[in-house]
Write a structure and sequence with these properties.
The chain is mainly β and 129 residues long. It is built from one helix and eleven strands, in the order βββββββββαββ. The strands form two sheets. Strands 2, 4, 5, 6, 9, 10 and 11 form a seven-stranded mixed beta sheet that branches. A four-stranded antiparallel beta sheet has the order 1-3-8-7, with no helix packed on it. The radius of gyration is 14 Å and the shape is globular. The termini are far apart.
Amino acid sequence: EVQLVESGGGLVQAGGSLRLSCAASGFTSDDYAIGWFRQAPGNEREGVSCIRYSDGRTYYADSVKGRFTISSDNAKNTMYLQMNSLKPEDTAVYYCGAADGEVITIATMCQFLGPHGSWGQGTQVTVSS
């Protein structure tokens, strides 16, 4: 069973930075992907950024390109999301999500991961103006 534990959320002023961490374990496939998703009040959950471990390919939502960077430390089984130039519209609960195999493309995984995926408990990110 895949387990995901997030950390690193908090309150920051607009223009500031935060780094989210997701410690992952329990993968059974060699082709798995992991990423960050967010959900603001009244909005649907959206894929922010994801990484496919087999080939290192990444996906970024248009709204975060150039500001967010996803990376992984395989030795620590931890994935990170560095968020710079934060905006009030980035305020949301951020979830770590993963697909253990059956990754068609990283973009597909990041845009459509649903209940069949594995999910962390979420961490709040609040950006004040």
